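Risk register update: the risk of archive-format incompatibility is retired. Evidence:
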Amino acid sequence: MELDDHRFIAHRRVSVAEHFALEHDALMGLPGEPFDATVIGSHRVDTKARVCVRQCHYSVPARYVRRRLDVRVGAETIEALDGATVVTSHRRGRKGDEVLDLDHYLEV
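Archived output:
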């Protein structure tokens, strides 16, 4: 890190450390609580008890077939909600994945 402090950026006469010292007072501290970067959308549960979110299918309990659920999409997880109740939570999948919890199909 010290090496970077003494480095000069092309076409500038001030080192990185000197530039940081000039801007230090204008910088703001981090907020006390983390930023909520989740996105909530309404999704219809298909006949296979799945919701499709960003081209990835996630299972929900079978009793929600053909109903609409709110889905909270975060950076690492998705949560399906029925009102304020969290119905299920999954780790985020990639495009084309099926993320299934076999316990959701025990009712069938």
